[in-house]
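User: Modeling request: complex.
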Amino acid sequence: MQVIGVTGLPGSGKSIVARVAKNMDVNIIRMGDVIRDEAIKRNAEIGETAVKLREEYGDYVVAERCVELIKEHSNDENAECELKFIIEGIRSPYEVKIFKKNFKTFKIIAIHSSPKTRFSRLKRRKREDDSSNVAEFKKRDNRELKFGIGNVIATSDYMIVNEGPVWKFKNSIRNILKNEVKKH
Amino acid sequence: MQVIGVTGLPGSGKSIVARVAKNMDVNIIRMGDVIRDEAIKRNAEIGETAVKLREEYGDYVVAERCVELIKEHSNDENAECELKFIIEGIRSPYEVKIFKKNFKTFKIIAIHSSPKTRFSRLKRRKREDDSSNVAEFKKRDNRELKFGIGNVIATSDYMIVNEGPVWKFKNSIRNILKNEVKKH
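Assistant: Request completed. Predicted assembly structure:
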């Protein structure tokens, strides 16, 4: 079994990694989905659930839930089947620690785009939680940096620069995933 | 005048950037040299000087000295001459703030290599302050990360991946420097 974490600041292109991986039969675990699923179970709001989950189970509950999810998954399937997992949205060095403890060959792929590129992407995309002005953009970056995402990015096993074109970015993702799958 | 900062964890290849830049008539300012020069002036040890300088002038004395150096330099020369500077060894977001305040078009180039690659380089290189065992290597990384270098790397304007071959790395450096010089 191979588990790979994906990290990057908002607008860097993390979701494209998940899309490419899905086409390669890799299972995708989104850290955000763990909270969303729990919110549905509790019939509560997402923001409220995120806070409560941490109060009840500590800061690393989301990472720990991801580990459980992957372990359940791998019990379900045929033992002969080579399972691969991508965890999208890793933000803190402590999360990395938890994943490394549970999955011996755990690797991190970081995606980098310049602040200028990320800002213009987020502006174009305008998801509900995306930032459309510079102050908001910086605030959002700082929120992520406070979790320690900068350290996760700086010490990643792979770094993909995503400044376009998208086919080049997708090729880099495919090459890394193929390389990681071959090794295990 | 264009000023570009270079950042990267130990063993990533920062000094190659300086070497390439020198061949392109770019002036190199090494943050470490500022302390070394001051130590010679004071006839004191480097480590001791680093501590004393900070005690006397605050945490950002090295960045501020670099700014002074660059400003002196640019007064010396012919005003028509397009001066370019590389500052090697930027580690903290506060240093970036100081440089951005003083040089309007200031840009950061980050160099990334995987921890595995950096460790084997440092082991091969064995400079006095380089780490030859994993614990020492991690300790040194953590010392840099505590300064906030992860945030500087994650939010850099350019990211160069240096996993070899060296000619490819040098080409990337040249392209970025040419691009930055053209713009200003």
